[in-house]
Amino acid sequence: MRYQISGKQIDIGMALQTHVQEELNTVVKKYAERPTDANVVFSKNAHEFVCEATVHLSTGLTASAKAHANEIYAAFDGCAAKMEKQLRRYKRRLKDHHRERAEPVELFGASSYILASDHADEAQEPDGLHEPIIVAEMETKIPSLSVGEAVMQMELAGSPVLVFRKEGKDGLNVVYRREDGNIGWIDPQ
């Protein structure tokens, strides 16, 4: 597994890097057979250290965790505990589905845009036509998953919505967390 361990405006010593690699390797190997890479970023927010970790699995799923504490090692240990909990749930769900994925998740390229939310320019638009201002443009990947895997990926990432391609179909599908706590699924015809 490849590790990328870095700090945002703080120095990360070799002892911490070794600790992170050993502990994260133990946690990930326990619940995931073929992890590909891990990205761990340390930063400081006021008096607390923040640790953000992301682990990519060969199945195409991504697990991420974030924790903060007054000590840098405690921040990582909290993050590793959250990561372990996510991976344990992921493995339990895989066992519950009794379905092993024979090949990695197929990914499709797409463009992702971030639009400005400032509506002050609307008064200056002559014909009432509003062209949103693009703040950022980047490439993203859309996975081809089953609905159960999409819900699992959304929960692992802690995101409120996930766009995916349903296996065996061409259109895009969306799963999202509803206000009542349930999961919604949009499946176009």
TrEMBL record:
It comes from the Bacteria. Residues 131-184 form the Sigma 54 modulation/S30EA ribosomal protein C-terminal domain. HAMAP family: HPF. It is found in: Cytoplasm. Required for dimerization of active 70S ribosomes into 100S ribosomes in stationary phase; 100S ribosomes are translationally inactive and sometimes present during exponential growth. PANTHER family: 30S RIBOSOMAL PROTEIN. Associates exclusively with 100S ribosomes, which are dimers of 70S ribosomes. Interacts with 100S ribosomes. Belongs to the HPF/YfiA ribosome-associated protein family. Long HPF subfamily. InterPro entries: HPF/YfiA_ribosome-assoc (IPR050574), HPF_long/plastid (IPR034694), RHF-like (IPR036567), RHF/RaiA (IPR003489), Ribosom_S30AE_C (IPR032528), Ribosom_S30AE_C_sf (IPR038416). SUPFAM superfamilies: Ribosome binding protein Y (YfiA homologue) (SSF69754). Gene3D superfamilies: Ribosome hibernation promotion factor-like, Sigma 54 modulation/S30EA ribosomal protein, C-terminal domain. Pfam families: Ribosom_S30AE_C, Ribosomal_S30AE. Its main location: cytoplasm. The lineage of its organism: Bacteria, Pseudomonadati, Pseudomonadota, Alphaproteobacteria, Rhodobacterales. One of its GO terms (biological process) is negative regulation of translational elongation. One of its GO terms (molecular function) is ribosomal small subunit binding. The keyword Transmembrane helix does not apply. This is Ribosome hibernation promoting factor. Keywords: Cytoplasm, Translation regulation. GO terms for cellular component: cytosolic small ribosomal subunit.
